[in-house]
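Q: I'm a student working through a structural biology exercise. My instructor gave each of us a protein and asked us to get a predicted structure, then write a short paragraph describing it. Mine is PKD domain-containing protein. I'm not confident about reading structure output yet, so if you can add a plain explanation after the tokens, that would really help. Here is the sequence I was given:
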Amino acid sequence: NDTSKLPMLQFKLSVPSGNENVKVNSVKLTASGSADDASAISAVRLILDSNGNGLYDIGETVLAGPSTYSADNGILTMILGTPRTISIGNSENWLVVYNLSGTASFGQTLAVSIDSNTAISAVGATSGFTFTPSGAPVAGNTKTISDISANVTSGIAPLQVEFASQFGTGGTVVQYEWDFDYDGVTFRPDFVSNLTGDANFTYEMAGTYTARLRVTYADGTVIEREITIIVSPRSDAPTIIEVFPSATIGPAPLTVTFTITAEPGIGKIEAYFWDFDGDEVIDFTSTTTNT
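A: Happy to help. First, here is the predicted structure for PKD domain-containing protein. I'll explain a few features afterward.
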């Protein structure tokens, strides 16, 4: 609800061959959703997404803004401080990024779109003739205001996530607990605090995770919330070729030695993590041997 750098809309601008370089002057945005855009959004920025990952990263260029909506469900023209020239045969990814003020209510929504081709003002860099893009309308994300949030909900391993809680403080909450890889059955807190529900966690391995927050109030009330985190493998991640167990059957207690064969990809394998009972909890880690 008070998130900064919230990506709301990603779109690509391309200049096909056979044209001239194109200069973009402004982009007109149309807001929608049940929250009051004029008060719930403290800043709107237009960002050049230089690495195309859909996030506003440190060092990326602010093309326009910060600006604000003057009315709920309003129209905002983002005028570029310096017109952006896109060369023939090239394309760029742009982002619309919101800062939220924290005034929206739980369950309210925010959305933004580029409703028509004429919403993007562009001219030929040499001729000055008006260019009308194609591809509109383009709809962005619908943000539902929650009482927990994460600065990122997807990315490549290792993925560092900053979790935040908007639940009451000042004595009303006696304990915050986070289970960052909740299995849907047993709540195992990885983070416990009586001061804050804000916490950081790094997901080292690819997978789909449920992060679950449990908040306990002074009167005994317990509230739980969840958020899904999707972690993708690195393109240069090691590939497991085969796992060799020394035994697959035998009387208890059964001692088994596991040996793994893996291709390191780019670089080298730094560590081996073993989960012997499939409960998604690491039981053994080795940085020196594959056994």
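A: Here are two points you could use in your paragraph. The helical segments are 37-40. Residues 6-144 form one domain. It's a good idea to check both against the output above yourself.
Q: Great, thank you!
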